[in-house]
Design a protein that fits this description.
135 residues; alpha/beta; five-stranded parallel beta sheet; globular
């Protein structure tokens, strides 16, 4: 509940932990609970990287119409060169949309899963230490 609390506002959630501890399972459970199960993107897949090359905001085409504040999971994005700039571009682009755009009053939350060793350099919620239950 802590990781996905509304108290964090519009901040990205960085979930880290050792291999096979349930980071992806936790992220997918949150997507399911919020009606955003189609917004999980595994950056190990060439098809996801290709969609990004074709359209930097490719995932917005998958936003469910019934969800006003979608959650998006970018799993393993840390393997991409310039991954921090990619995430910043996502966040800034969606934040800059005006009410007259195709995405109205969007409050997209990104869940980023990455390994424990990377968490030392970036503030994150370390799974399973911090997050004890899934909504």
């Amino acid at each position: 509940k802590i990781a996905f609390s509304g108290d964090w506002g519009r901040q990205m959630r960085f979930i880290s932990g050792p291999r096979q501890c349930g980071k992806t399972t936790l992220a997918r459970a949150q997507l399911r609970a919020t009606g955003c199960e189609g917004l999980y993107y595994l950056w190990d897949l060439r098809s996801i990287r290709q969609r990004y090359k074709t359209d930097e905001l490719f995932f917005t085409a998958d936003f469910p119409a019934s969800v006003s504040e979608p959650w998006v999971c970018m799993d393993e994005i840390h393997k991409m060169p310039q991954w921090k700039n990619i995430l910043k571009g996502f966040f800034d682009s969606l934040s800059a949309r005006s009410p007259g755009s195709s995405i109205v009053n969007i409050c997209t939350i990104f869940i980023i899963c990455f390994p424990k060793w990377l968490a030392v350099r970036y503030p994150s919620l370390r799974w399973p230490d911090t997050c004890k239950s899934v909504p």
